[in-house]
Amino acid sequence: MAKKASAPKRAKSSDKNNDKSAAPRILIVEARYYQHIADALLVGAKRVLDEAGASHVTLTVPGALEVPAAIAIALEAGRKSYDGVVALGCVIQGETYHFDLVSNESARGLMEIAINERIPLGNGILTVDNEAQALARASAGDRNKGAEAARAALAMVALKRNLGA
């Protein structure tokens, strides 16, 4: 009886995504519709990522509705380039249904990307009633929602690495 040939063993990937000790590579996608708020969110996110020793690249889009598409495009272009993503932006309630549409669809798009691509993602897109609320959430310090989104992305990168995924 002939011995059945076994499938060749796959070599372990040397891809940095599998190295638990490698500095995380994070993609930041920021919506600039409210520039002063975007600036503050970005400062908070970069501060947290720099303190963690993570490298980061920032892409800029016009508004929150464009953030999920930009992330999808960037992930497709650089499939293994990023360990996680931070989404930043602000949607302020107005007089029309547009607020609900942008808030809901940007959040849905981000969740869809995170699940389908299995990429750690921190959502720092503010959805607020007025500019004062946005400024309070984009202010300096530990409560800055850009900083919180970066911390969430880093925590999910660590979880993914610890699970060997």
- Report the span from N to C terminus: 40 Å
Query: What oligomeric state do these chains adopt?
Result: single chain
Question: What name does CATH use for the topology?
Answer: Rossmann fold
Mean pLDDT: 89
Uncertain spans, ≥5 residues at pLDDT below 50? 1-17
SS field, number of helical segments: 5
What is the CATH architecture annotation? 3-Layer(aba) Sandwich
What value does the Rg take, in angstroms?
Answer: 19 Å
Tell me about the largest β-sheet: 4 strands, parallel
Supply the CATH class: Alpha Beta
**Largest beta sheet: what is the strand line-up?**
2-1-3-4
Structural class: alpha/beta
Proportion of residues in helical segments: 40-55%
Fraction of residues in β-strands: 15-25%
Please trace the helix and strand order, writing H or E for each element: EHEHEHEHH
List the helices and strands and how they pair.
Elements: E1 25-31, H1 35-51, E2 55-61, H2 67-77, E3 84-92, H3 98-117, E4 121-128, H4 131-138, H5 145-162
Parallel strand pairs: 1-2, 1-3, 3-4
Helix pairs in contact: 1-4, 1-5, 2-3
Written description of the protein model:
By secondary structure, the protein is of the alpha/beta class. The chain has a single domain (23-162), classed as 3-Layer(aba) Sandwich (Rossmann fold). It is built from 5 helices and 4 strands; from the N terminus they run E-H-E-H-E-H-E-H-H. It has helices spanning 35-51, 67-77, 98-117, 131-138, 145-162, and strands at 25-31, 55-61, 84-92, 121-128. The chain has a 4-stranded parallel sheet, with helices on both faces. Strand 1, helix 1 and strand 2 (55-61) form a beta-alpha-beta unit.
